[in-house]
Amino acid sequence: MSRSDRVLADAEAVLRRHSERGQSLSARARQRRNAALMRKVKYAFWAVTAVLIGSAVAGFVTPLGTTGVMIALGAMLAALLLVAMLPGEKRVRTEALADTALTALPLQTEIWLENQRKALPAPAVTLVDSIGVKLETLAPQLERLGDQDPAAQEIRKLLADHLPELVTGYQSIPEPLRREERNGRVPERQLIDGLGVIDAEIARMSENLASGDLDKLAVQNRFLELKYQEAKELGQD
To answer: Relative to the CA of 63, which of 27, 43, 170, 225 has its CA 20 to 30 Å away?
Structure first.
């Protein structure tokens, strides 16, 4: 095989891996939604069953009559409405990310990002998907890190501090102002650029962990702090 053929083959393999990861990302999100739906169905079943059992027991003591039947039906309807109002997919509070165990942080961050999708512009959603794929790769790599390792602290700072600050800073800006230039900057463009930096940084961290070069994880810390400082200013302009 010629050198050019090998390059093409490698490129196709990379594209195939990214495609497979993207599909697995969608599959995981779909699995979470299905699991949430099944939980609701289970709760509804047990709620209705409890009302039926309660009504049957009461019927042995005294006939329910029309009024009793109506009360039982009302209790069933109320139970079903209550179950329907329960949150569907699991939600992760922004402040909870800081207290999440390191090994669970990538998945919790992915779920948190999934919850923010509807409030983000289309180009940012594409980057959110890309970040989610990289978080899937990063998660198993963190199992060999201790919480006090400098590398672990840098990863926690990126996922639990910088990323939420960037997104919530953008969301704090009124919708009509997000595409307008303010002090030479456009909030939507800042969000997209910031997510792009984070996407690249997660990839760099994963590569350094894979190569065992943990010291490199802190090299760009100053640059990233300066970059994310812009995100903090999004909601202050």
So the answer is: 43
